[in-house]
Amino acid sequence: MTVRALVAGSGWIRTMACAVGLCLVLTLSGWAAAAHAAEDEGAIKLPGYRDYLERHAGKTAGKADIVIEADRYAHADAETKVVDGFEGMEGRSLVTGDSGYVEWEVDVPESGMYNIEVLYYPIEGKGNTIERMIYIDGEIPFHEARYVNLSRIWKDETEIERDSEGNDIRPKQAEAPRWRTVLLNDSLGYYNEPLRFYLEAGRRTIGFESVREPVVLRSIRIYKAEEPPAYDDVLAEYEKRGYKEADAAPIKIQAQQPYEKSDNTLYALADRSSPITEPQHPSKLRLNAIGGDKWKMPGQWVTYRFTVEKDGLYKIAARFKQNLLAGMYVNRKILIDGKVPFKEAEAVKFNYGSGWQVEAFGDGERDFVFYLEAGEHELTMEVTLGDLADMLNRVDESLYELNAAYRKILMITGTEPDLYRDYSFEKLIPDALRTMAEHSAVLKQVSADMEALVGQKGEKMVLLDKITFQLDQMVKDPDANVAKTFGPFKENVGALGTWILTVGEQPLTLDYISVMPVSAKLPKAEASFLRTLLHEIVAFFLSFFSDYDMGDGGGKREGELEVWINSGRDQAQIIREMINDSFTPETGIRVKLKLIPEDALLPSVLAGIGPDVAMGSPVGDPIQYALRHAVVPLEDMPGFRDVAERFHPSAMVPFEFEGRVFALPETQSFPMLFYRKDILHDLGLAVPQTWDEFYRLIPEIQKRNMQIGFPADITGLQIFLYQNGGELYDTERSRTTLDDDLTIAAFQRQAELFTTYKFPRDYDFANRFRTGEMPIGIADYTIYNQLTAFAPEIRGLWEFTPLPGTVAEDGSLNRATPSSGTAVMMLKDAKDKEAAWRYMEWWTRAETQSRFGTEMESILGKAAKQATANMEALFNMPWTKNEADKLTEQWKYATGTPEVPGGYYVSRSISFASATAYNNGDAEALLDYVKDANDEITRKRREFKLE
Fold first, then answer.
1. DSSP letters along 674-733, please?
2. Where are the beta strands (DSSP E) in 530-637?
3. How far is CA 649 from CA 137, 664, 827, 841, 870, in A?
4. Could you tell me if 310 and 351 are in contact, meaning their C-beta atoms sit under 8 angstroms apart?
5. For residue 784, what are the contacts with CB-CB under 8 A and spacing of at least 6?
6. Which of 376, 514, 552, 815 would bridge 595 by S-S if both were Cys, CB 3.0 to 4.6 A apart?
7. By C-alpha distance, which of 447, 344, 347 is closest to 392?
8. Average pLDDT taken over every residue of the chain
């Protein structure tokens, strides 16, 4: 039976519940509401784990050791299924889905602080990290308990193979699930020890709420986990037992060949920076390292297996490169056979250096010694923040409080304070000034602590010192300095959030790991001058005979498909690697991928030297090329109908003309409503579902000197137009509807927001939303990526939701929204159109788009999440169930805008009319542009012989 069947088959539970009687259903419903009441009240801003520990500072560690069988749950409002003997595990286990809540009752014999350990199996899902919320007695005890992660397990599907040119091909990544036991930890890594929960003696409840991905639970253990002993104590025990240095040869473990790993992006890399990186070749591509900027987030781990021939004491060394975090060090937790051998191994430092280094694991003063028995062992290296964890935690708390202080000032002064007004800040916001003084002291201490750790005043401390100086000046003389420095204060608070992200990343590249006798000499970190020179000479000579095409070089060869991409170099590199290890092995078609500037395609096509396939084309390009007979229609290609079903119908609209289809959508995005949960909660405001509710919200926000965001371009007009059943063009697409009643009404409603209600026209939504200056607004849903990546201080305090809707005659809501995106198209000069189509079909597959999105996030961070047009791929990305549901709801109403000859003049006319209405208060300015827009469309239609 498949995992999906296990979860889906649980529908009989609900059916039986109904059969038992309505009373039971009502009882369970009442329990579920009560269980989540605490979340509704407290999830806006829960106390942090630091505060939780301080409140329970006098509580001792619990002495009980309790194991809860997962199948013996007390209540569940989720789809669950009890299975017996699942994947070789004796006993009964519980299958839980990607949403819902499960609760267990437990009798605690003694009050105390306990750890929670979970035995779980990561079943098939979307390939993302498993995420759960933890409840104690129906409440989430602290903020960090809302984000508890259980990692998946990945392996290389095959050994490293080579292509016909002799270059290494990166193995595909495959899930390798197994039963795994973990203690619950902070997902951000701000606390190095496992999370502790206070449990009173008596009957308690433990609840898990699914946020992301399904999982099978076997048991939950509640106990006080033992702390690793100190290294000195371990050494003393070694001496007591008479352990001696192992008489054995060194064992070299190639880092690019791990046994297991936590993420599918932790794959082998090709490093050419040193001739002694293993393996290496002067002209061929060799996969010889792992990590880099793909291995930098707390909780990511890599495991290696190795065998020692003799018992004894060993040291473990690594050849590594840490050249990304300048002036700092990174940390790794070291586990031997699944356990941290001693306290100091919880955070082994790897210092910054411009090149490769070879060092044994140690504390900077001595190399650590490990006792290993003969046989097979596992070595795990896990990203951890080490000593930096507490500092980042303190700065994160300061950032949140300083943002709150900023909003209090904003509510008094507005966005542009009057420098000549006496605001009497000390009387109006004394609490905010005390907060600023308190956190100035906190940031000063963090700067001093960081300098002590690093050993020098580095660039990471400069921002902290700058902010503390400004805070001191504002607190010292508020009336003289608060209004004057309000703008820089906002910028510095934003920069502090970026600082947290930068310092919290721990990138490290490994070449190999060596397990060697204690007295063995470490290998050299870099090649000698002569060896380096010889390597470079040979590489230079072979470069005349080798193909180094990695996206933008080399000439096109016979039978090779040429693809141009209008994007960034990182994107091109990822696609190149995917082509090499997926598309070409599958189809036998070689591809030359070329990275081009935005304006290079058109002149190349006109000159007859264009590509076979163009990727990343703006939404308006395919029809413009089609009008000039420069692209190939696709509707007659084999399997086109099946390919088209991958997308929402609205995504295809801009690429259809005169009954033909000239491109496939790559990305599709649309506006959604973003809102700050904490601010709306404080103001007692609800999220608007209709435009009437939206308009009632406006004065409540504005009277506190805050703003609302709304699109000032054609997008804003389209929202009102499409929700009322209007279109931008007539059915023949031969004229605009700018003079139709629906369009004029939509334009007037949009203009009213900027004239009557004084909405800002030009603003940075993400930045204003982050600070709370704009707590609600309509923006493209891809802003989610930016906020997730660059606003960690408001994590959990905001959401996005479908747009306010227009109430239809039948009472339903029309939440129609315009959509846009990019396309991939086949140029007319493509010699092998079948090969070009196969590439387009491959590129738009769900698995291809999902992998590309994952790769982008691993390199560029969460801000690079792909807005893929493939519906299945979008929901395979790491959205929570709640987020995916809201995206699905809004996507139902996505509306495509047709592309027509001369259509560029329509958006230009709307932009001009909008500016005129804003500057002159002329709500009917749109009518002045109707004739010119229609004349331009007619002129273009005649030019292309369409009439």
1. EEEHHHHHHHT-PPPSBHHHHHHHHHHHHTTT--EE---SHHHHHHHHHHTT--SB-TTS
2. 561-565, 591-595, 613-618
3. 47, 11, 23, 17, 11
4. no
5. 674, 800, 865, 883
6. 552
7. 447
8. 90
Are the beta carbons of 782 and 879 closer than 8 angstroms? no
Torsion of CA 457, 459, 460, 465, to 10 degrees: 70
What is the rounded CA–CA span in Å between residue 164 and residue 284?
11
What's the pLDDT score for residue 327? Answer: 80
pLDDT at residue 12 tops 80 = no
Question: Which tokens belong to 88?
Answer: 């070789």
| Residue 113, token pair as written in the block | 């602080």
Q: CB within 8 A of 303, min separation 6: which ones?
A: 258, 259, 260, 261, 378, 379, 380
Identify whether the C-beta of residue 267 lies closer than 8 Å to the C-beta of residue 171.
yes
Closest CA to 213 of 273, 127, 311: 127
pLDDT digits (tens, 9 = 90+) for 304-344: 999 999 999 999 999 999 998 888 899 999 999 999 999 99
Helix H or strand E segment including 826: strand 820-826
DSSP string, 512-555: EEEEEETTPPPPPSS--HHHHHHHHHHHHHHTTTS---SSS-SP
Of 647, 681, 676, 679, whose CA–CA distance to 664 is shortest? 647
- Listed in sequence order, the residues at least 6 apart from 544 whose beta carbon sits closer than 8 Å to its beta carbon are none
In the prediction, which pLDDT does 37 show? 38
Instruction: Find, among 304, 219, 10, 1, the residue nearest to 124 by Cα.
Output: 1
**What is the radius of gyration, based on Cα positions, of the chain?**
30
Kindly report, residue by residue over 934-947, the tens digit of the pLDDT: 999 999 999 999 98
CA distance 748 to 223: 64
Task: Classify 851 as helix, strand or coil.
Answer: helix
Between CA 815 and CA 886 the distance in angstroms is: 12
Q: Are 329 and 351 in contact (CB under 8 A)?
A: yes
What's at 319, amino acid-wise? Answer: R
Reported as half-sphere exposure (CB side, CA atoms, 13 A), residue 512 has a value of 19
Structure tokens at 260: 């297991």
Structure tokens given for 626: 């089609």
**How distant, in Å, are the alpha carbons of 259, 378, 398, 524, 526 from that of 357?**
24, 23, 36, 8, 8
Structure tokens at 531: 């060896």
Kindly state the average pLDDT of the residues 87-109: 96
pLDDT at 663 over 90: yes
User: CB–CB of 376/306 below 8 Å?
Assistant: yes
CB 465 within 8 A of CB 447: yes
The size of the chain, in residues, is: 947
Encoded amino acid at 308, one letter: V
Q: What is the mean pLDDT of residues 61-70?
A: 96
User: Contact at 8 Å (CB) between 18 and 11?
Assistant: no
Nearest C-alpha neighbor of 843 from the set 823, 820, 827, 865: 823
Contacts of 409 (CB under 8 A, 6+ apart): 425, 429, 432, 482, 486
The two three-digit tokens of residue 852, written as one number: 């590309």
CA–CA separation, 788 vs 766, rounded Å? 10
CA–CA dist 150, 215 (Å, integer): 9
How many Å apart are CA 204 and CA 184, to the nearest integer? 18
Which string of b and e fits 726-758 if b means at least 16 CB within 10 Å?
Answer: bbbbeeebebbbbebeebbebbbbbbebbbeee
Secondary structure of 744-788 as H, E, C letters: HHHHHHHHHHHHCCCCCCCCCHHHHHHHCCCCEEEEECCHHHHHH
The one-character DSSP state at 869 is S
Rounded CA separation 217/82 (Å): 10
Task: Determine the Cα–Cα distance for residues 724 and 718; give it in Å rounded to an integer.
Answer: 10
What is the 8-class DSSP label of residue 609? -
